[in-house]
# Entry
Amino acid sequence: MNILVENAGLVFTQNDKREVLRDTSIYISGGIVKEIGKSSLLKEKYTPDLVLDASKMAVLPGLVNLHTHSVQVLLRGRFDEPLMNWLRLVDLEYEKLDDADTRAAARLTFIEGLLCGTTTFLDMEGKVKPIVSAAREVGIRLYEAIALVDTAETGVSGFTRVADPEEEVKIALKVAREKMVTGQLNFLLGPVGFPSSSPELLRIASEEARKNGLKLHAHLSESVVNEELSRKMFGLSETGMLEKIGFLGPDVIVAHGVNLDPIDIQVLAKHGVNVAHCPTSNAKLGNGIAPALKMVNQGLNVGLGTDGAASNDSLDIFSEMKTFILMQRAREGFDRRVNAQLALDMATRNGGLALDSSGKLGVISPGAYADLVLVDLTLPYMLPSEKVLDNLVFSGGCRAVRHVIVNGELLVYDGRLRNEELYRRALEEFNEAAKRVSYK
# Structure
């Protein structure tokens, strides 16, 4: 579809200069931003299939959710427990799920995020086929980290080996090769992280990922329990252990980092590791407040993630922007660098760079992916209009989203999914899955 986003009140390009353009139009063709300029000139040059009046709107790059578990929406609100108890209960529920449950859950996760302006998801799950099917139905941009586990983290017998690490990686690589496409669907290897993933599995996964041109996604330092266990078993922090086995690199995205110490942060920065900061999930599970500002100050590329809906329970990245700012100021004191612009960077260009080093994701510029969010500037919680970005992050958020475009396709119009039949079917099948799971 060829779309002209016409006369936007503001365009937050999120380019290297963080240019904010006024009264600007954007022409989209072939899934990319073709040209930015005056409407009259673009109309002379191109013939759009659709014109969107954006005169009372601001345009942002599509938001990037840099860490989630799409299936967990089926468990939203079920378990209000500290992490280790929570993991045990969630693991038991996962055993109940079949492909239909997985697809229904993933589809609702992607729709919920999309309605709040999230166009790209870095998801981590074990059952890939139904999730890919759901992503294609909804139309979002998906990076799926294939979860790899070889030890029973929450079993009564301790860290019992439950899978062969080489076989786990071999199976994941086969899935990635069979289904890999560029653009809207990409795969990563997702060793879940210590102790669910042994150092052997983490090492093998990193070696094979690099041989096959895949990125890596893992949990790191989510709980103090994990850190204490790593130091007891290896005499090293989790980060130190990962460095020793050669896991770390610029192709790695780690989630959480709640208990990183200054030396760990320096190590991650040295290796160019990307971090998915999940402030709400970290707080809800009682794990603490990650030193996100310290990571940023050390030069780490930090994005934002919601984590799964079983531990958040929202899938709203705007909410994570606000929570990030409030928690870092509560932790570190008032700091003008921790502001709406930094939060937007984390939710757009930083997440984009973690996933796609080409610079086409999380920005609005000619040649970039046509993933855009249009927010309504006339709403009460977006007024007064002098500080649009602050209003959006601290007040307007998800409820200000009006239109969402992914890969050049208008998926959300006037706050509603355009494909009404898909929306109806997604709700119906999710509710059926939720009933089945509760009775199993």
User: Anything to note?
Assistant: The mean pLDDT is 94. The radius of gyration is 21 Å. The first strand starts at residue 3 and ends at 12. The CA atoms of residues 103 and 131 lie 5 Å apart.
